[in-house]
Each structure stands twice: as C-alpha cells, then as structure tokens.
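Hey Z.,

So I finally got round to the pyridoxal-5'-phosphate thing we talked about over coffee. Here's the setup:
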Amino acid sequence: MLPRLPQPKPGIPGIAPYVGGKSKALGGRAIKLSSNESPLGPSPRARKAFIEAGKRLHRYPDGNATVLREAIGKVHGIAPERIVCGAGSDELIGLLVHAYAGEGDEVLYSEHGFLMYKIYAQAAGATPVSAPEKNLRTDVDALLARVSPRTKIVFIANPNNPTGSYIGKKELQRLHKGLPPHVILAVDGAYAEYVENFPLSLQDRGEGYSCGHELAATTENTVMLRTFSKIYGLSSLRVGWAYAPAAIIDALNRIRGPFNVSQPGQEAAAAAMRDTAFTAKARKFNARWLAWLSREIGKLGLKVYPSIANFLLVEFPKGKHNAAKVNAFLMKRGLIVREVGNYGLPECLRISVGLEEDNRAVIKALRDFLS
Ligand SMILES: Cc1ncc(COP(=O)(O)O)c(C=O)c1O
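And the result:
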C-alpha cells in the first residue's frame, strides 16, 4: 500500500493561483502599465524614511504599527484603535476571510471583482459566490439577491479593479441596509484616493462617492480596506490598512502575524500618509492623464469603459484586432499592459496610467497597430 501523502485542505487544489501583472517585455526597454502602480513613485519623504529605517534592520518591527496607525488616524480623522495594518491589503482580505468564513460559509462578491476575494474564500474552505454585473458595474440588487443564511462576507471594491467603475454612496448604503447584521460588508478602497476630491465632480450624477468610511465608523459590520500600493507608490513595501468596528479589529489582531508589517514599510507609509501635498499632486496627475488616455483611445474607435481609478479597461473587437493580438503587439514595443481573461473579460485589456511619455507611447502603438 502506498503511504498517504500530505494533502492540503479541500478547496485548495482547486484554486487558480493569482497571476500578477507581467514586468518584463520582449525587447529591452519596458514600460510597465500592468499593475496599477503609481508612475510617480512615492513621496520623497517616504523614500527618506525608508532609507533611515534601513539603519535598524536587525530590530523587529513595532508589532502594533503605532506610529503608522496614528499618522493614518490624524490624516483621516479616525481613531487609531479602529485601524489594523497588514502586509498589503491582500493580507487583510485574507485575515478577514479566515476570521469570519470557513467550511459551509459563503463569501460573496461582484462578477468582475478583485480576484483575491475568491482565492481567499477557497483557501478558507468557504464557498465563493459571485453576483452578475450590469455594464461591468457592481449591481447591488444582484448582490442582495445572492445573500443566503450562509453568507458571511460581501466584498466590493469601490472603485473596482479591473473595471474602474464604482457605485455611489447611496447605493453602498442600500447594500449595507439590505444585509443581515451578522454579514460583514468589506469595502475595498484600494483606489479610493484617486476619487476623493476627484476633479470630475461625481456629484453631477447625484451619486456622490464613498469608500465606506462612514459605514465603518457607525455600523458594527462594515470594514474599509485601503492600501499604500497605489497612489502612495509603495507597492514593493506591502502595506495596507483596515478601518473597522472594534470587535472586528480585535479578531484580526488575534490572528495576524505578530510582526506582519516591516518597519521600513511602516515608516515609509507613515511619511507618505503625512505628505498630503504629494498625494494631491499624484491625484491631479492621474486625473489629467486618465482623461487624456480615455479621450485618445476613444478617438481610435475603441470602447473605453468609464474609470475613476488609475487605469482604463479597453475593449477590442473580435478578429484581427482582438485583445490578445493587441497585447502581443504592445509587448513587442516594450509596453506591458494587463490581459484580463481571468476576470472573465478576454476581449479587454487593462492599461494603467503611466508617465506622459508612457501614455503617448501607448496611443502611438495602438494607432500603429490599428492602421
Ligand atoms: C481592488 C484591489 N484590492 C486590493 C489590492 C491589493 O493591494 P495590496 O495588497 O498591494 O495592498 C489590489 C491590487 O491590485 C486591488 O486592485
């Protein structure tokens, strides 16, 4: 008889591993527009804080991320006790699922939602459930219709990756109102900073925008997730944070690693958070080039989905100009964008906003390809 070999828990072999944006092109020069990183990089103050922290690499980090939580609390006007930091918001998504969902439970999210919601649900042995979208936008009614007695968490990214779409504050409140009190509403605001004070007034649509902070402040079952990987330009350092009711913070603190965020990460992130002028500059830069890219791609006759984040989802026609062929052509020019077939969008590519010359290179390459 063969010896019984170690087996992962049920559900784990069925996980399709997350594939990050490519970082190498075919030729020499590469312009990476595949992971929604900030083309401006971090605030110079964050860089300085990181280098300074490099002098103490032999010391464990502050396991409570005290200074970072205080910096976040001060800038956002929220209580540091209601914040927990993680190694990227990825870690916090995972901790939330592990703390609240297991075998027999369901984790609900929107059809084209961020892939890690499904992966962590499967890893915890829970059942991932997705709700269809309308025009690549989260559909609150469809989500509510799929809430069952087994639902433990509903994830929504607002704005969503990879669609760039969002739901307004009233819709978010309606979603929360429709959930039973024991179900957690997790609002992932990885791109929220690009929207707050966004120059294109969202109020025009009567919608307003919220990444859920009011709900996280006033209800017992809403969690807001944020990251330093996007507008703050610190993807490499892996720092994220959650703002949540005290009981949820307590649960996450019980199961996280004791030193889950590195000290250079904490110090750089705190400096980045405090440098609000730099963040405003990055937001303004993004707004300008997001609008430009969207307009120029539209002029090429391609379908661009409205986005309020730092990337655009572009749809290509079937046939000789399809997404896979465009992607191969861009790759040869050293332009790395993201294929999104694993998000159920094989006819689209996601393009992050880059520096001016990157954005111009994208438009030139698309124009050359289409002609
Ligand atoms: C919607 C969304 N949530 C969370 C993350 C994870 O970010 P990080 O783990 O770098 O904080 C991403 C990264 O692309 C994202 O797009």
